[in-house]
Amino acid sequence: MKKQNVRTISLIVCTFTYLLVGAAVFDSLESETEKRRWEALQAIEDMIIRKYNISQEDFKVMETVVLKSEPHKAGQQWKFTGAFYYATTVLTTIGYGHSTPSTIGGKLFTMCYAIVGIPLGLVMFQSIGERVNRLSSYVIQAVRKSLRCKRTAASEVDLICVVTTLSSLTIAGGAAAFSRYEGWSYFDSVYYCFITLTTIGFGDMVALQKDNALNNKPQYVMFALIFILFGLAIVAASLNLLVLRFVTMNTEDERRDEAQAMQFLTKSNIWTKEALQVAVKLEGDVITANGSILSGYEGHEVQSNSSGSTTSMCSCSCARFSANRHKKHQYKARRSPSHIRHLLPEVVPMQDLSYDTHSLNADGLDIVDTSSVSPSKPHRQLLKRNVSLLSFRI
C-alpha cells in the first residue's frame, strides 16, 4: 500500500480518535456544570412566576425581549461601522453570530459576498503569512551571522518557533487591551483572542457589544478591527508552516512513487530494446543449442537436383566472408525490427552437402571450393558433425 494511502487512513483514524477523546473530556468537565446551571435557572423561573403571578406564555415573551435586545446594547449594528464589523466577521469566517441579517436581500447578499470574500481573504492572509515567514528567515539569518554561527540558514523548526512566539505575543497583547476595555478577566480575554484568531468564533464573548461602543468609541473599534486582521495574518503564518509540512510530506511520497514508476518504465523500455536487438542479431551467424548454425549472411543460393536433395555451397574466401559478415552487421543496425518477418529459414541437412573436413578455416567455419567438388561424387566429402545450415533469404 502506498504511503499516501497509509497516511490518509492514519489521519482519519487519529482525527476520529481525537474527537472521541475530546468529547469524553468535555463531557466530564461541562456536563455537571450545565446540569446545575439549568436547575438554578428553572428555580429562578418558578420563583418569578409564583411571585408575580405570570403565566408561562408571558414569561416566554419576556425571554424573547431580553434575548433580542442584547445586540442593540452595542448601538446600531447595521450602520456603516457595525456593517463593516459584520463584513469582517464574514470574510474572515469568524462568524460570531452577534448580528445576523433579517431581510431576504441581506441574507442573499451575505451568501454572494461570502463566496467571493472568503477565498480572497484566505489568499490575502496566506500571502501575508508568507511575507512574515520570509522576514522571519532574514532576521534569523542576520542574528546567526552576527553571532558567527556555522549554520546561518533558517530551518522550518526555527520559523515555526518564531511565528509561534509572535502569535503568542499578539494574543497576550490583545488580551490585555480587551481586558481593560471590556472589563473581562485576563484569562477570558486570552480565550476570546484565541477563539477569534483561530476563526472558531463561538460568539459567547464578542467585543464592541456594550456601552454603545460602535458609535462612541471609534479608536477602540479601529483597534479591534486591526487586531483581528493583523492577528489572523500572524496566526495564519504559524498554521501554514504546520499544514505545509504535512502537505510536503505527502507531495514527497507522490514524487517518489512517480520516480519509481518512471524508473520501472525506463527499465521496461531497456528490456524491450534488448529484446529487439537480440531479434535483429538473428540475421548474423548463431549456433543454437542443438548444434544448428543459423546463417544470415548473403551469398548463399539454394539449388535442388532432380532427386529432390537440396545443396548449398559458398565459393567465397575467408577474408571475403569476414568482410561480408562485417557489412551485414553494419546493415543490420540500420534495419527496422519489422523487416525480419520475411526472413523464413530453410533447413539444409549437412549430410547432403559435399564438404571436406580439411577445409576448415581458423574460425571453425567450413568453406568449400566449388571447383574441387565433383558432381558425380556428391557424398564423399561430408562434414563429420551433426549440424544443420539455415540459409535466410533476404
User: What's the SSE pattern?
Assistant: HHHHHHHHEEEEHEE
Query: Which word captures the global form?
Result: extended
> Average pLDDT, to the nearest integer?
74
Helix content: 55-70%
Number of helices: 9
How would a textbook summarize the main sheet? 4 strands, mixed
Give a description of the structure.
The chain has 394 residues and is mainly α. Helices cover 61% and strands 5% of the residues. Strands 1-2-6-5 form a 4-stranded mixed sheet, with no helix packed on it. A hairpin with a 5-residue loop joins strand 1 (286-287) and strand 2 (293-295).
Task: Give the topology, please.
Layout (H helix, E strand, L loop, with lengths): L2 H50 L3 H14 L10 H12 L12 H43 L9 H27 L3 H12 L15 H4 L1 H63 L5 E2 L5 E3 L6 E3 L5 E3 L5 H17 L10 E5 L38 E5 L2
Parallel strand pairs: 2-6
Antiparallel strand pairs: 1-2, 3-4, 5-6
Question: What features would you highlight for this structure?
Answer:
extended, 9 helices, 394 residues, two-stranded antiparallel ribbon, disordered C terminus, mainly alpha
